[in-house]
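User: Fold this; tokens only.

Assistant: Input:
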Amino acid sequence: MKTLTELKQYYESDLLPDLKVLETRRLQIVRKLMYVGLALGIIAAIVIIAILSYARGNLIALLFPLIGGGAIFMLAMKFFSQGYVGDFKTTIIDKIVHFIDQSLNYDPHNCLSESTFRSCEIFQKRPDRYQGDDFVYGKIGKTEIKFSEIHAEYKTESRDSKGRRQTHWHTIFKGMFFMGDFNKDFAGLTVVLPDTAERLFGRLGRKLQSLNFTRGKLISLEDPEFEKLFSVYGDDQIEARYILSTSLMKRIVDFKKKTNRRIYLSFAGSRVFVAISYDRDLFEPRLFNTLLDFAPIQQYFEDLQIAVGIVEDLNLNTRIWSKQ
């Protein structure tokens, strides 16, 4: 695994020249957006003055120029920064990926497929809207891996007091989704989920988990620390215990502590799936912050290292089993 010291050296020698070019473009975009913002501000002020003069008491009308101006500004920001974001990813993020491991490939516009996401069976809701980007794939040692950023959502519909239909979008999962070769053909499905019920409700929570019929059987394991953090469901009690050895459970616990995030795992087919929740976009450049600061580069590097490091963290390169 690459160290932070090595990253700083690589930043100075290989990344900084490209970042300086991109920083010039960023400043040009920000300057254009300042002109757009100024123009919109003047127009909004004129409209607001007109509303106050001719529509006294109708304060709700004051929202329209503000909302409209905000929407136009967001569209302008997306328009001006579109090529810049793509160039940043193909230049900087691609270089960081290859710095971590030369065998990896990066496609900023692709992601793991929806069918792959569904096949992990971690999340039971079927997505109505599925999107992602920043697809990384390749081989770490003996282990084939793929991961990308994913945002999966489902929708519900309701009607307001006037009978108008409203659509609401709810997040199923947002974050990093990883798939790796486990070198073992599983007969059933084993799912490892964050254990919130037991932490909140103690033994009652454990009882409620056991009644989760849609998940299969609740698997009891002999690792108190692991069971405080996770609940495990599987089709086959024996296979689940076989997969989740004492050493693997410890590695999962350590990985959870290392990431300090909600993580989900499943073992299906001959693959291990890991979903790591994030509430932010991972590899997007910050338009209103300088690119010449090392801190964002370190953040991109660490986010990528978390996904690539799953191979080492879960010891996937040690082939203790062979495929049937």
